[in-house]
Design brief:
InterPro entries: Metallo-B-lactamas (IPR001279), ODP_dom (IPR045761), RibonucZ/Hydroxyglut_hydro (IPR036866). The N and C termini lie far apart (41 Å). The protein has one domain: Metallo-beta-lactamase, Chain A (4-Layer Sandwich), CATH 3.60.15. The chain is built from seven helices and 13 strands. The mean pLDDT is 95. By secondary structure, the protein is α/β, with parallel strands linked by helices.
Length: 244
């Protein structure tokens, strides 16, 4: 599994893990993220059970496991959080931040030692070291209970499945040509995003954020210009196409 440092200033870092060439062919590629501040760390959508070993190997190259105090699951999908039972056995006194609506489902992945912090529908914040992270509602995009994470200091928006594209492990890290990238995103967003009202609500929430990078859970990352191109494109996109 490859890793890439997206942001590093003082004791504040964002690290992306992904592009796992050793994964099985029928397992989709996913991006996992770690935020570290003042020696404390949170893992964002730490991945499926099959990724636990490469994730663990990648993390210890950058920081110590005892720095991990928090996990975040944007929603309930197995590619995001089915590794929970293994993290639960490995880490002591860790807190999982995830939508309240999915607690009874996510616990099926295994939670003996982990505290579940149920996020309310209207969002919340978390103090991590010297920074404040914002859990931003993104409900129905695509899950009925769903959140993004915004770091105003690093100016990074973790967008979950928004902006997602299914890519090969050797694809570029960033969107270099937005128009050429549309075909990689279009069907996924049209099929998996069901609500026009939810779509416009999310766009209104994030459009004025100061974002240098939008970091989705699949595929390439968006620079500031590409982020705003995505918002304009997504605003006009017809979604929920499985229902005539």
């Amino acid at each position: 599994m490859k890793s890439h440092t997206l942001y590093s200033e003082g004791d504040h870092q964002w690290i992306m893990f992904g592009r796992d060439a050793s994964k099985q062919d029928r397992i989709i590629d996913t991006n996992q993220y770690a935020i570290i501040s003042q020696g404390k760390a949170i893992l964002l959508d730490p991945g499926g059970i099959e990724l636990f070993a490469p994730m663990l190997a990648g993390i210890v190259k950058h920081f110590s496991l005892d720095q991990i105090e928090h996990l975040f699951a944007s929603h309930q999908d197995p590619d995001i959080i089915s590794s929970l039972g293994l993290w639960d056995q490995l880490l002591d006194n860790v807190t999982l931040h995830s939508p309240w609506i999915w607690e009874g489902f996510i616990r099926h992945f295994g939670m003996q030692n982990t505290t579940y912090r149920a996020l309310p529908d209207d969002g919340d914040t978390l103090s991590l070291g010297g920074i404040e992270l914002h859990f931003i509602p993104a409900h129905y995009l695509h899950s009925s209970g769903n959140f993004n994470v915004y770091d105003p200091k690093a100016k990074i928006l973790f967008s979950g499945d928004l902006g997602a594209a299914l890519e090969s492990v050797d694809a570029p890290l960033f969107v270099e040509d937005f128009d050429a990238h549309i075909d990689k995103m279009k069907y996924f967003h049209q099929r998996w995003m069901p609500s026009e009202r939810a779509k416009q609500n999310w766009i209104a929430r994030v459009r004025d954020l100061d974002v240098d990078y939008m970091a989705p859970q699949h595929g390439r990352l968006f620079t500031r210009e590409a982020f705003h191109q995505f918002l304009d494109w997504f605003s006009d996109l017809k979604i929920g196409i499985a229902v005539p």
